[in-house]
Amino acid sequence: MSTAILAPGSRGRRLSKRLLQVVITLFGLLLLTFTIGRVMPIDPVLAIVGPDADQSTYQQVYQQLGFDKSLTTQFGIYFVNLLHGDLGNALLTGKPVVDDIIRVFPATMELATMAIIVGAGLGIPLGVLAAARRNSVSDYVVRIISLAGYSTPIFWVGMMGLLVFYAWLGWVGGAGRVDLGLDGVVPRRTG
């Protein structure tokens, strides 16, 4: 029975191939993020202790972070910590990365939800229009708009949106995330 599951062309064989691809891809991503963290032109120890720290403090933090160990040992520690949900501390805030993620997660969900609503609200009617009037001027306009939308970097779209709808038209608020009832009462901040 077990040989039938992994027979060539069987569903089990295809599933096991896909699972192996997922494992290899995740390992590659982990290796890439680990490598990026090690080749960045910033000294994480110096970012933590500050430029005025003495050599003994620097050396102590260097050893606490495990930089005195081999790269393979560092990667092993990195992998085990990830499995336990320990993403380390953020260099900018000094707090655990998980705490920083939890703090900004609601804003991320709001942004993603609004993007889905706007995308579906525009995409579905425009797709229906293009399908109903195939090879017409409106079909070509919808194709051009969708191609431009897919190929334009999202950060540029965001900056242009702020320029047009905030700076020029004044239709939306600026940077920051504040409930409408508290706008003007509390200082604006992102996240």
TrEMBL record:
Keywords: Cell inner membrane, Cell membrane, Membrane, Transmembrane, Transmembrane helix, Transport. Residues 105-191 form the ABC transmembrane type-1 domain. It holds the Pfam family BPD_transp_1. It is a multi-pass membrane protein. The keyword Cytoplasm does not apply. The keyword Transport applies. InterPro entries: BPD_transp_1_N, MetI-like, MetI-like_sf. The chain crosses the membrane at residues 19-37, 111-132, 144-169. It is found in: Cell inner membrane; Cell membrane. Gene3D superfamilies: MetI-like (1.10.3720.10). GO terms for cellular component: plasma membrane. One of its GO terms (molecular function) is dipeptide transmembrane transporter activity. Belongs to the binding-protein-dependent transport system permease family. This is Dipeptide transport system permease DppB. It comes from Klebsiella pneumoniae. The gene is ddpB.
